[in-house]
Amino acid sequence: MTAAVVVAVLVAGGVYLVLQRELLRVVLGFVLLGHGVNVLIISAGGMAAREPALLGQQDRAQMADPLPQAFVLTAIVIAFAITVYLLALLKAGDTDDDGTQPDPYRRATGGEDAS
Amino acid sequence: MTGLQALVVAPVLVPLAAAGVLILLTARPPGGGGPFLLPMAARRAVAFTAVAATTAVSAVLLAATSGGAVVVQRLGGWPAGIAIPLAADAFGTIMLTVTGVLGLACLAFAALNDADTDRAFLPQSLLLLAGVHGAYLTADLFTLFVFIEVMLVPSYVLIATGRGPERIAASRLYLTVNLLASTVFLAGLGLVYGVAGTVSLGDLAGRAVADPALAAATAVVLLALAVKSALVPLHNWLPRAYTAAPAAVTVLFSGLLTKVGVYALFRVYSVVYDGDPRFLPVVLVAALLTMVVGVLGAVGAGGMRQILAFHMVSQIGYIVLGLAISTPAGLAAAIYFLVQYVLVKAALLMVAGAVEQHVGTDALDRLGGLAARNPATAAAFAVSALSLAGIPPLSGFVGKLALVVGAVEAGRLTAALVAIGVSVFTLLSMLKIWNGAFWGGPEPAPDPGGGTGTVVALRVPVRAVVPALALGGLSLLLGLWAEPLLAVAGVAAQGLADAGAWATAVGAP
């Protein structure tokens, strides 16, 4: 239950931030979303057993499922790299990003598509 | 371990190794300034050799699997169920081979147009190829996620190598949309693991039919894949992002990125849902909407590359229509269509890119009379455009005919009619490019207002469109001599329709 609440709060905050105009908030939103999803994956392995999965040192019933931990470790590495790159993009175009300019994506295709 | 099993890892490792070499040897010497360690010609040679070797390996794997066999390699020698499996079957190896051919053509196009001089282009393209190849080979949902990320990260870099103020905005849009899709993919993976206790496709085979919870969890994964395939209504990022990327990068992306999404949609739906007909109406509606919305966007667009980008969306609809039919004939038609479409669309984008680079614009209201001065460019465009619209005897005709026949046989008359109607609109927007850019006198009158008027048609060097001509010729060949590819596509479709056999091969000890 606690895990579900944590995921809900993180994802709600993440979605709210991703929907903002300024890119820095979007980046922070993705950080929150990433954490929310990581907690979701960890809880998919079961929250009851939490001991380290070391054969011969732990009771098997108490061991946490190591596979979701490996997933999350991979996901954290990928998310970290992309967050850094997003921040670099933020810096590369910081003059159009104070939230007061017209929507920059309007100009992305030469203004032809009205969608 | 047989030799073939050892070869399965090559399409991932070879480009990865070559990219590493290129990154190391093109780094600036300490202190800045100074020449690069490797001259441009040597860098090109490394990249070409790597992609050519990968394509050769892919062709060998295709020959080995074209009878329906599945070559499985379990990484690290771990037993089945623990190891990460790479599985090459007919569908995967067809995709590998066409990716290799496209990669070679794209490198040639970039070299002939000096579009690969950016330090990032060659190594990042190779990394991208490694990720794409991995995604075509993996038999595990989490590894699929990792390979898709391996493919996306270089694409984030490549899309930002363009010029002009739009590139940052387009990169941000592209990055945020794909990052959101990846996050949804990851959440779906977590849900699948929570419900089923495994993310191996072999173990998940057919389980979504009887387990609604697993069906819902996998649907989250499919939703993320639909974003990456640019299915309507999740398509809007593609035309905006692709038109701001450099021309050679757009060619590479068009043949690789969305195709991986489509491939994964086919694979995951066929394996996990076992082609369950209950959910196919959803796929059908998405496919038809994608076809129609994409082509209408193309009719309304005003630049060559923008029109072609909207057609990318529209053609994805045709391919997914094959999945929505999900009969062996429909799947085979979709696979044939996918292969020929990758080649044709790359040729069109190469022509558009060459025109944009050598004439300075690809806006139709500023171009005119290209055909009179550039017969080779016009020929490359005409062959590919007619193929895209589905005119015999080109490959697009065979693909569309097979799809329409498959739809009619499956009782989807409306879908068949929509497919034919969209073809007419495709032809219409191809004619719009032809009339706007290629037709007319060699030197149209300059616009009295100046500035935004018609530019005098300049020469596009023949070498700039040689790869496009080659791909157009390939389209003609695949249209006139379609039997071999149709036969292999049939084998691949059989493998998709009979997912149980694939899963057994992947999971067998």
What does this molecule look like?
The complex is a heterodimer of chains A (115) and B (509). Chain A is mostly helical. Chain A has a domain at 2-49 and 63-91. Chain A is 57% helix and 0% strand. Chain A has 3 helices and no strands. In chain A, helix 2 packs antiparallel against helix 3. The radius of gyration of chain A is 20 Å and the shape is elongated. Residues 107-115 of chain A have low confidence and may be disordered. Chain B is an all-alpha fold and 509 residues long. Chain B has a domain at 286-499. Chain B has helices at residues 3-7, 10-25, 40-65, 90-112, 121-137, 141-159, 166-196, 201-204, 212-229, 237-242, 247-272, 280-300, 304-325, 328-359, 370-373, 375-389, 395-409, 413-438, 462-480, 483-497, 499-507; strands at 71-74, 85-88. A two-stranded antiparallel sheet of chain B has the order 1-2. The relative contact order of chain B is 0.11. Chain B: Residues 139-426 form the NADH:quinone oxidoreductase/Mrp antiporter transmembrane domain. Chain B: Keywords: Cell membrane, Membrane, Transmembrane, Transmembrane helix. Chain B: It is found in: Cell membrane; Membrane. Chain B: Its main location: membrane. Chain B: The chain crosses the membrane at residues 6-25, 46-70, 90-112, 142-161, 173-193, 213-232, 244-266, 278-304, 316-339, 378-403, 415-434, 464-482.
Helix-strand category of chain A: mainly alpha
Main beta sheet strand tally, sense and closure of chain B? 2 strands, antiparallel
Measured by residues with Cβ under 8 Å of the partner chain's Cβ, the largest interface is: A-B, 35 and 41 residues
The profile of the biggest β sheet of chain A is: none
Total helical elements of chain B: 21
- Molecular shape of chain A: elongated
Helix content of chain B: over 70%
Give the helix proportion of chain A (percent range). 55-70%
Q: Can you write the helix and strand succession of chain B as a string?
A: HHHEEHHHHHHHHHHHHHHHHHH
Unreliable spans of chain B are: 445-451
Alpha-carbon distance between the two ends of chain B: 13 Å
Tell me, briefly, the overall form of chain B.
Answer: globular
